[in-house]
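Notes from hallway chat w/ T.B., transcribed later so I don't forget. T.B. wanted the structure written out for a chain they're using in a teaching module, and asked if we could keep both sequence and C-alpha cells in one place. Agreed to drop them here.
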Amino acid sequence: MRSEYLFNSKIIGLDHTDYVLCVGTNLRTESAILNSRIMRHVENKGIQVDVIGVSPELNYTYDHIGTSPKTLE
C-alpha cells in the first residue's frame, strides 16, 4: 500500500530535522538509503532518534522507548 512508505516530508527534509521517531520499522532492512542518511545526521549533527517497536540494530545510537501502541500516548 502506498501509505506504508510515504513520509510527512520528502527524504531531503531530513537535512532540516532535529528528531526522528521510527514506529514499527527496521530501517536498516526496509530502507537502507533512509537509514544511512539518518546515521549521517546522528553522527554529524547529533539528532535524536527514538524507536517504538522491536529494537533493531541500526548502526547508530537511538532510544528504544517501548513496544506497544500505548507508548504513543
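Follow-up for T.B.: The first strand starts at residue 19 and ends at 23. Might be a good example for the class.
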